Amino acid sequence: MLIFLNIVLVLLLIRLSWMDLTKRVISNSTVLLLLMVIIPFSFIHHSQIFFLPALCFLFFGFLLFTLGIIGAGDIKLIAVLMLSIPTEQLISFFFLTSCSGLLLIIIGWLFFRESIRKAGLPYGIAISLGFLMNWGLFS
């Protein structure tokens, strides 16, 4: 069961990243599927779900969204992934996500400048990479 959940989680993050790259959309259906995988994933890995940090970020993220700083799909994705990240790993998760975002910005600026300028940065990729690196680092 654990291997199956891990594979499905990685495949969903790859699908979500590809859709964000090609369409600049993080679909609600993919985030919902991810939620259905993250809950048992968190129970298996940590014996609990970390609701409070996820809800706090959802609230804070809504404020960032209303200010036009971050997209709603990115907020939903981070909140769902945070359900499986222990509180002591949150700084690491955000740091790794930021590093992935910086790499994404550099690659985008070098090779896809016009696309980034027109459609924005597909930050779902950085969020997914940050989560996977954090998971790899602490598992």
UniProtKB/TrEMBL annotation:
Intracellular or extracellular location(s): Cell membrane
Residues of the Prepilin type IV endopeptidase peptidase domain: 7-106
Coiled-coil ranges (or none): none
Molecular function GO terms recorded: aspartic-type endopeptidase activity
Enzyme Commission number(s): 3.4.23.43
Enzyme class: hydrolase
Highest taxon, organism lineage: Bacteria
Transmembrane segments: 26-43, 50-70, 90-112, 119-138
Keyword Phosphoprotein carried by entry: no
Name by which UniProt lists this protein: Prepilin peptidase
Keywords: Cell membrane, Hydrolase, Membrane, Transmembrane, Transmembrane helix
Membrane topology, record value: Multi-pass membrane protein
Taxonomic source organism: Bisgaard Taxon 45
